[in-house]
Amino acid sequence: MTAARAARGRPATVRGGRSRSAVATWAKSAFGVAVVAIMLFPLYWMVNASFQTNQQLARPSPHWLPLGGTLTGYRDALSQQGGHLLASLIIATGATVLTLTLAAPAAYALAQLRSPGGRTLLSVLLVVQLVPGIVMANALYQIFASVQILNSALALILADATLAVPFAVLILRAFMTAIPRSLLEAAALDGAGAVRTFWRIVLPISRNALITAGLFAFLFAWGDFLFATTLNLNTTTWKPITLGLYDYIGGGTNITTWDSVMATAVISSLPAALLLTIAQRHIAAGVINEAVTD
Amino acid sequence: MVPEVPKNSAAVVGGRRPPPDRSVAPAARNRRLGIGFIVPVVVFVAVFYLYPLARNVVLSFQDYDINSLYSGNAPFIGLGNYRRLLSTPAFATAVVNTVVFVAGSLFFQFTIGLGLAEFFHRSFPLSPLLRSLLLIPWLLPLVVSGTLFRWLLDTSNGVVNQILLTLHLVQDPVPWLNTPHTAMAAVLICNIWIGVPFNMVILHSGMQAIPAELYEAASLDGAGRWQQFRYVTLPQIGPVVGIVVTLGLIYTLKVFDVIWVMTKGGPANATHTITTYAYQLSFGGLSEFGLGAAAGDLLIVVAAVFALLYLRALRADPGARA
User: Fold this and answer.
1) ipTM score for this prediction
2) pTM of this structure
3) Which of B29, B69, B143 sits opposite A242 (nearest CB)?
4) Which of A1, B135, B266, B315 has the most crowded CB, counting CB atoms within 10 A?
């Protein structure tokens, strides 16, 4: 990817002076920064508002910088939403563990073992991702009601895993397909069975892919709102942070505590920021591409 | 599996080339083990996708309300739910809104995403960093994005109105979320903001796969920036465009969080899409689960049509798998 980029460098000598192209290059950077600043302005405004007092936020002229900032919003957010944050953490972690436990062996089988029905499974996994969440929520509500697991951590862990399992299988499979056959054959020659090979070789090699798939599974579950607001609406114990945030603004048209609303929004965004930092652009971009085109 | 065994034993008897033959036995075993490896996911798919889907279809033919939930009593009423749904004016509004929402989202997400992808396709300092920063809106929980835009567009304290007033573009604050047309514009803007990074990333990676020689040749032929884009980039990313638009369409059909958080489908049903309307029917207080399931099924049919087109596009173009 990087090599292709470098090779593609525009023939500056053909086009004209070196200094002119240097200026043009920096102009591009400046333009890029401006574009990003505009696109990310809403995020800046969220952070800015989260550090202001409600009196400041209610004034007709905006405070462009969080000067004279306060942590009141965060204090309120943590004291009122702490339980929801913990619930989200537990549910998202559970969904991630469940997703990887199911997806990793299947991905290995689809990538390296000639499992009967593998191709069909692959197509089904591609297609089920297209089922609208509201359809899943509607049906899961009836099913969970009949087995009486509505309003529990289990309900959301199971439901949230449905968001991530197909995605995780597809990206892990894409990665595991690239594991050299010779490596697995060598393990087989050493007497390792498929289970041992999977555990001792495939999983350790796939660490990065597992981390990426796991982070996305976590992010999907963390961001889920539809399942929470259908399956776990009538609980105080297992209400995730998305529902907590919605409760802040849900009914009213006249919201007076934008500071704690925005502080909660900032806190809810932290896993995304974490993902971006850890997974980095190559993994993230590559993974998205793999997952949607493979 | 069966034919492998004699082949293997024959080789052993012959005593020739043992190493390749030893790998035949594991291959046979692997086939069997392969089943064990995929069984958990197969069960999961059956229980958590296929069964709910089937359940939803059955539900759409039943008069299933809040009492049914407790009594388990839900009479079958044939196409009753579908007939009722299609004769409800609010549903017709939801269908029109869905078309507006999907078309508007796709058009702007794609054009802005394409513009950004083309821009970041050029190499310049900071390009990779800026590109990854642009991903943030796509990674945020949708509830956060909806809440954020609700704050930006707040009538009295929202920064958008404050800027418009300062620039004297409007005389009075715009009640973005409280009037029908501006509410649709508001949810569209938020959804476009969320979707641009996805379009940009996929289109950008499609552009990365274009051989550099094509640009060099075009450049030597005297093609300018625009001509290179028009005659090299666009034709080369054709398949990726198909994928991005199809996926965008399917994702946009499902959008729930953004609309629900910003407007709850209001004012006066102005921002209800089929998705939010289906939710409203099932969970909005009246517990019309059968009716909601019928709306959901219609949504599946639309999504399925595009899913088929999507799979066909993938199969037709091996290059897109790169």
Assistant:
1) 0.85
2) 0.86
3) B143
4) B135
